[in-house]
Write a structure and sequence with these properties.
The structure is a single chain. This protein has a single domain, classed as TonB-dependent receptor, beta-barrel domain (Maltoporin, Chain A, Beta Barrel). The longest helix is centred in the N-terminal third of the chain and has 6 residues. Helices cover 2% and strands 58% of the residues. The N terminus and C terminus are likely disordered. By secondary structure, the protein is mainly β. It contains three helices and 45 strands. Keywords: Cell outer membrane, Ion transport, Iron, Iron transport, Membrane, Receptor, Signal, TonB box, Transmembrane, Transmembrane beta strand, Transport. This is Probabable outer membrane receptor. One of its GO terms (cellular component) is cell outer membrane.
């Protein structure tokens, strides 16, 4: 194996290691049949099978078994999803159903942790300790989530602090790095107040060699700490959790190679590095009224990114304060009508500095919304789910330096939804859905003398979906098949020179495709999960004020693969009494070809990634894993652009070379 393959080969992982006298974390038995699962990303508890839309849920144990440790690796578990670092992981590109995050300040897929919105840069960081599951709502989610949720919503669910004293640990030692997590949960006042503290760390070794000097470069250190307190007295309707978190990423990963040096991973010797500091504070409070639950969610996040790319420094800061108040019915009461109704407010402050030209750009964006989503159980088999959201946003911008700006703009948006779900029998269910997504207009954050315009208009997406779901009565198989078609008007796209890109409207985009996903236990020992996505996302009407004479109508949208697939297999062998089980695993992911810009002249061909692993499950409390990610040593480009001096430049994933388009 080459050096790059060994960098991702784990030689040891211990998970949920209990201290004597302290109970370890409960883990799902690999050989049990599938249990019905619920989803909370719809802002009320629902069975995923009954939601009139495509929903996917992956539990923490499966992610750990496959070595998936960050949100940026979730496309190995979710079909029709492509997540790749774009230049650096603070600007991770997330594509779901062809809706790619070409606007890296406001990705097309929103990330939430325990119901709280996260800064886009959090996609780069490790998944939180004490993870319970990760949920993905496919397609536009404008009614429930408002601005930006065009492609979908990823909701990370953690296990709340409780009355059990336990220590959860997980770790992996790699030949060129490693990661570890530690979670301590403890009651503070028995039956009343609980708390936990968590620490996660990942070290990624250097991945490139600098041209000329031969210096190894491209490594990353990721450290994150979290403390939570929860007030939830026994038999009390009140539940309040307060959390605070700090994270730091130090990295030189943002290296670029010329096409002629792609195979050798030799990077240009030009200063490229960044430090990402994040801090957050959250309050998640709920009160059970018996017939409904009132939930208040308060979040604050502070992000500081000190970034230098190819010698060009552009530090930026962002703070976000959000508040949501909602009431959701109790579905266990069996009422004919279930509902969630709420209000939302957010303030975002942003500053970007360009020392080279003495430019400072600032923005303040205030957002307000009211929303409602209903589920009318018209009959024992038929559910009808309408929804509506009203958004209002005001953006104020100021720029000083080479360019001077002082302005204010306001926008309003209406996001309707209508879904229907019908049970053909106890195992089969069909659904249809019309949903919408909305991104407000505003002022571009990248202000330079090269900008032709400094404002852009709102973007609206209209989506239609139909599908069928199957769930075996014995829980041994779940499967879903869905087809979708959506149109986006006034598509927001970064345009201009690679060093000076800014946001503008670029016409109309159409996405259409098919998703298939399944999860099965054919026998008590064998587990299979997988899926595939077919997608075609193109510019159906290209309009770009920067180059009005150029028409890219018919071209594919950047970062949107036409075909994705994944498959995971595991089989449990019983060992001698007292020795537990041995569980070999295999995971395969295929990502189809993508282009890195709207010209469709630079991109990456499709490629397979294969992961193999072996788990020794001594008990519920002690598990040792050995796994190798990217077995066939595949190297691929995750980002690229054409530069006047060096030609095509690429940033690479790990592995051996794969030809670039």
């Amino acid at each position: 194996m080459s050096r790059t393959l060994l960098a991702s080969a784990s030689v040891l992982a211990l998970s949920s290691l209990a201290w004597p006298g302290i109970a370890g974390a409960q883990q799902k038995e690999e050989t049990t049949v599938l249990e019905p699962i619920t989803v909370t990303a719809t802002k009320r508890v629902q069975e995923a099978f009954e939601v009139p839309a495509t929903v996917a849920i992956v539990e923490a144990q499966e992610l750990q078994d496959r070595g998936i440790a960050s949100a940026g690796e979730l496309d190995r578990a979710f079909v029709d999803t492509n997540i790749r670092s774009r230049s650096n992981r603070a600007y991770t590109n997330v594509t779901v159903r062809g809706q790619s995050s070409v606007d890296y300040y406001e990705p097309s897929v929103q990330l939430y942790v325990d119901g709280l919105p996260q800064d886009p840069s959090i996609f780069s960081q490790l998944l939180p300790a004490g993870l319970d599951s990760v949920e993905l709502l496919y397609g536009p989610q404008g009614t429930l989530y408002g601005r930006g949720a065009i492609g979908g919503v990823i909701n990370v669910v953690t296990r709340k602090p409780d009355n059990e004293l336990r220590v959860d640990t997980a770790g992996a030692l790699h030949t060129q790095g490693g990661d570890a997590s530690l979670l301590l949960n403890t009651p503070i006042i028995d039956g009343v107040i609980y708390g936990d503290a968590a620490l996660t760390f990942r070290r990624e070794a250097d991945q490139y060699t600098l041209l000329g000097s031969g210096q190894e470069i491209g490594g990353t250190d990721d450290l994150n700490g979290r403390i939570r307190l929860r007030y939830a007295p026994d038999d009390s309707p009140l539940d309040v959790m307060v959390s605070t978190q700090r994270g730091r990423v130090d990295s030189t990963e943002e290296q670029f190679v010329m096409e002629s040096m792609f195979n050798d991973r030799i990077a240009l010797p030009i200063d490229s590095r960044y430090r990402l500091d994040t801090a957050s504070f959250g309050v998640n409070a709920s009160y059970d009224l018996d017939f409904a639950t009132i939930t208040a969610l308060t979040g604050y996040q502070d992000r500081k990114l000190d970034r230098t790319t190819l010698g060009f420094q552009t530090p930026e800061d962002q703070t976000t304060f959000s508040q949501e108040l909602r009431i959701a019915s109790d579905p266990e009461l069996g009422n004919a009508l279930d509902y969630v109704v709420g209000v939302y407010g957010q303030r975002l402050d942003f500053e970007r500095r360009t020392p080279l030209i003495g430019q400072v750009s600032q923005q303040t964006i205030d957002s307000y919304a009211i929303f409602g989503d209903l589920a009318w159980h018209a009959t024992d088999r038929l559910d009808i789910s309408p929804g509506l959201r009203f958004d209002y946003e005001k953006a104020r911008a100021r720029a000083d330096g080479a360019v001077t700006i002082a302005g204010e703009r306001s926008f309003g948006g209406v996001s309707p939804k209508l879904g229907a779900s019908y049970a053909l029998d106890d195992e089969w269910r069909v659904h249809g859905l019309f949903s919408t997504g909305y991104k407000a207009g505003g002022f571009t954050r990248n202000v330079t003398p090269e900008n032709i315009a400094f404002t852009y208009d709102p973007q609206n997406t209209y989506n239609g979906e139909t599908g069928i779901k199957y769930r075996a009565l014995d829980g041994s198989l779940e499967a879903s098949l869905s087809a979708y078609y959506n149109v986006t008007k006034d598509y927001q796209l970064f345009v201009g020179d690679v060093y000076l890109k800014y946001l503008q409207n670029a016409g109309e985009v159409t996405a259409k495709g098919i998703n298939l996903a399944f999860r099965a236990n054919p026998t008590e020992r064998l587990g299979i999960a997988g899926g595939l996505g077919l997608n075609r996302t193109t510019f159906t009407k290209y309009e770009n004020s920067v180059n009005p004479g150029i028409d890219y109508t018919g071209n594919r949208v950047p970062y949107a693969p036409e075909f994705t697939a994944n498959l995971a297999l595991d089989y449990a062998f019983d060992l001698a009494e007292g020795w537990g089980q041995l569980i070999p695993r295999a995971g395969m992911t295929y990502a189809g070809s993508v282009f890195f810009d709207e010209t469709n002249t630079i991109g990456q061909k499709g490629f397979f990634l294969v992961d193999l692993g072996l788990s020794w499950k001594v008990s519920e409390q002690v598990v040792a894993d050995v796994f190798v990610n990217n077995v066939f040593d595949e190297t691929y480009a995750v980002y690229g652009f054409t530069e006047a001096t060096y030609g095509n430049l690429y940033q690479l994933g790990t592995g051996a070379p794969s030809a670039a388009v």
